[in-house]
Amino acid sequence: MAHSDLLPNLDSCLTTLRTVGWGAMAILQSYYNGDNQTNLNANEDKQDGPVTAADLAANKYILATLQEAFSPEEFGYLSEETHQGSDPLPQDWVWIIDPLDGTRDFIDKTGEYALHIALTYRQRPVLALVGMPEAEKLYYAVQGQGCFRETKTGEVTRLQVTSKSDSSPLTLVVSRSHRDQRFQDLIDRLPFGDRHYVGSVGCKIVTILEGQSDVYISLSGKSAAKDWDFAAPELILTEAGGKFTYFDQTPVVYNRGDVRQWGGIMASNGSQHGQLGEQAVQILAQLDQG
């Protein structure tokens, strides 16, 4: 057995991860609430939007703390703020980190930003945390053990998605912005009832966990969502009984070299998941024929 195949104790990893999550959220909040007055709009040179000093400070803390506990020789680190190159990381075990998902929401003060940290084994998530600093809640999951919500007071609740009958209208959770015409045409043609407008991907997935929404869709256009947008949200949703796949029901794979997730991805509480995926494929075929 190769050394990197030795299974780390995921429960022990989770204990460390929860500590890191609360620590990173405190850093993000200190910038968000103005306690830390370092220039928030630090530099606007990231391809997909602004990088803030908060991103960088939280990322530095997360990497330093995790790397002290989990050797960079045995564990790969794929972070939005430090990612370089186009080759997959060689380790079987890879941490995938987004210190601040929803930077625009952070700057615009909607409160709808999140922290994503996942541990993947051979390209699939096995441990995950999504933190919502302004709600002061952590959502975490270990593969096969369910999804849990932890409050700042230490109250822990196991979560299970609530699915709807096939005849009930479904609520789509979607961004206020970031919609190109092809995506807009797709969601307009799918049979959704209400729309729920929320920022970060992590915050969107939490609305499905909490029963406020039923479906989230990602569709690449000129750009695409990245590994760190999805790895942690996927596991907390699927461990709560939801589904997270490409439109054709194949699983999402991470650390493939290209961190961009091209194509269409659907996350849901499971209601009509397969049918919606099939419909989406058919609608896109019609749209692309023009």
Give a written overview of the molecule.
This protein has 290 residues and is of the alpha+beta class. The chain is 32% helix and 26% strand. It has helices spanning 10-32, 53-69, 103-108, 181-189, 201-209, 227-238, 273-289; strands spanning 75-79, 93-101, 114-121, 124-132, 137-142, 147-151, 156-159, 170-174, 192-197, 215-219, 225-226, 243-246, 260-261, 264-268. The strands form three sheets. The protein has a seven-stranded mixed sheet, sandwiched between helices. A five-stranded mixed sheet has the order 9-8-10-14-12, with helices on both faces. Strand 3 (114-121) and strand 4 (124-132) form a beta hairpin. Helix 4 (181-189) crosses helix 7 (273-289) and helix 5 runs parallel beside helix 6 (227-238). The radius of gyration is 18 Å and the shape is globular.
What Rg, in angstroms, do the CA atoms define? 18 Å
Largest sheet: 7 strands, mixed
So what's the overall shape? Answer: globular
Weakly predicted, low-confidence segments: 1-5, 39-49
Distance between the termini: 53 Å
Counting DSSP H or I runs of 4 or more residues, the number of helices is: 7
Q: Roughly what fraction of the amino acids lie in strands?
A: 25-35%
The beta-strand count equals 14
The percent of residues in helical segments reads 25-40%
String of helices and strands = HHEEHEEEEEEHEHEEHEEEH
The largest sheet has its strands arranged as 1-2-3-4-5-6-7
What is the structural class?
Answer: alpha+beta
Taking all residues together, what is the mean pLDDT? 90
